[in-house]
Amino acid sequence: MKKLLSLAVAVSIGISAHVHADRLSSELIKPIEPAVVTEPEKVELGKKLWFDPRLSMSGFISCNSCHNLSMGGSDNLPTSIGHNWAEGPINSPTVLNSSLAVAQFWDGRAADLKEQAGGPIANPLEMASNHALAVDVINSIPQYREEFARVYGSPEVTIENITDAIAVFEETLVTPNSRFDLWLKGDDSALTAQELAGYETFKSIGCVACHNGPAAGGTSFQRMGVVEPYQTDNPAEGRVAVTGKDADRFNFKVPTLRNVELTYPYFHDGAYWELEKAVDVMARLQLGRQLNEEEIGNVVAFLKTLTGDQPELSMPILPPSTNDTPRPQPFGAK
Amino acid sequence: MKKLLSLAVAVSIGISAHVHADRLSSELIKPIEPAVVTEPEKVELGKKLWFDPRLSMSGFISCNSCHNLSMGGSDNLPTSIGHNWAEGPINSPTVLNSSLAVAQFWDGRAADLKEQAGGPIANPLEMASNHALAVDVINSIPQYREEFARVYGSPEVTIENITDAIAVFEETLVTPNSRFDLWLKGDDSALTAQELAGYETFKSIGCVACHNGPAAGGTSFQRMGVVEPYQTDNPAEGRVAVTGKDADRFNFKVPTLRNVELTYPYFHDGAYWELEKAVDVMARLQLGRQLNEEEIGNVVAFLKTLTGDQPELSMPILPPSTNDTPRPQPFGAK
């Protein structure tokens, strides 16, 4: 009897392991893996730069201003506030898991995080500085020069090294261990029946065709408004700005759904604050499906299982400016 | 011989302890003691609120925006940037060790940190919200209500509790273990000869008459420009705005010198970026003394020994807004 029971348990474990291995290979959303830090000093340097508002002309805006790591790596605004309270043109995408995306920015105009990081520094609607000035500022600070020397072998600060360090820090900003990932890896109790029902709807109506991969998005560019046009006042035209091809008009990078409950408001224009409405719009405009209230509730319940462990960060202490540091100009030269 | 040696050592320790006890009682600057946290959950709640930009109308400005804990608890700007890029009227004082001050704000118009905390939330040039709206925002977020229930015994959020939690968090933002404090407590090797010479000048010309106590300041209101008037475009008139007494015109709270190397630019108008120049101006205008370059260098060297351990903080993860949360209005109602 004892032997039989052991056999039954063994068979049961075998089946269970088989089912779970199947999930990892058969499901189109893959788990987020924890960051593997191979260059901790570079990450630490990148973190300082991430939080340093001296990369902006005003001395007020840092990377974290619009990709706030206390708020899902976003600013929770329709479009961002930039230098001189400029109204940004597009919704600030979350930095969380951004290393998993095929390209950066909504239109994919930056190939990778390093290329992306140089953009906001010099964008007059964002940090409104320029690369030469940003380098001068960091170069004027002895502690930064020491850190660059340790990490890059030379105390001379360059925009390449600044953006490289920021990018390497950003690569650590992944959010593993969401309940959905626990389920993917075999924990049947990680999701409720409602959440599983939502996931089934998500797959069966076709959301997963675009929202796939470890980030549940970020793997392709797709037209915003396939079945019906998307109504918006936002003038962004998407990927056509990069490729010049008319076929790419209104094509945007598919945003990640990881931590989507934290990254409201939604879409490239940030026009939708409620996840229920965003799901409804997507189903209708992209897939020609009118979901009922229960289905929407289920999908939203599933989407909330994609919230993972948020990065645990200690606030960096920034090295002070010196008498030689170019001064911030928040209100223009005086 | 061994006994004699022991005796000699004992005598030497006795003398040394005597000298050090003397320092603690005779010196007018006292050590900063580490924070004693008796209500950790309240501190944690206060930290969340400190970093939460939803207390502002725009959803962009938090307490930390102008009292940045990565930058000595200040914004390192002459005057602060507020809602709609408003140019603030006065230099943002450091929050570090602010619990040790006799009152809050440059003119002391708030009796304590709790009273202070309500000010910026409702100031149209700062966070530009109002207390009712701030309460509505926090009240709409279940995780905050749970935390308030645990900490204050009721899930109902009030402005009194919001500002109390922020103040209790701020009380933890002290900076012990500066090299100067190690010296005060008896470590003769903590200061160099130059730093000690600077401290002697600091005392002998009279700086310490106002910059005293554990915060090396914050204990009194004093006229800015005693011997000579202070030249500034800044219209702030100081404590007269609170007391209505003409004798209080241009009286300001003496700022702390703790962490002064991190809290540039200096004075209530933030007009001086270089510590050397600030020392020169103070000696001339307040004390009628023209210090030479060596004396100024010595005093600056001493002032840099007042930089203590900066608070070690983990970035809080803020609870997400709900569909019922009043939305931020960065660019006015739309």
UniProtKB/TrEMBL annotation, chains A, B:
Any GO MF annotation of the entry: peroxidase activity
Region (Disordered): 311-334
Main location: periplasm
Keyword check for Hydrolase: no
Coiled-coil region list: none
Keyword annotations of the record: Heme, Iron, Metal-binding, Oxidoreductase, Periplasm, Peroxidase, Signal
Keyword Nucleus: no
UniProt-annotated location(s): Periplasm
Pfam family, one: Cytochrom_C
Signal peptide: 1-21
Cytochrome c domain sequence ranges: 41-149, 193-307
Source superkingdom: Bacteria
Protein name: Cytochrome-c peroxidase
Lineage: Bacteria, Pseudomonadati, Pseudomonadota, Gammaproteobacteria, Pseudomonadales
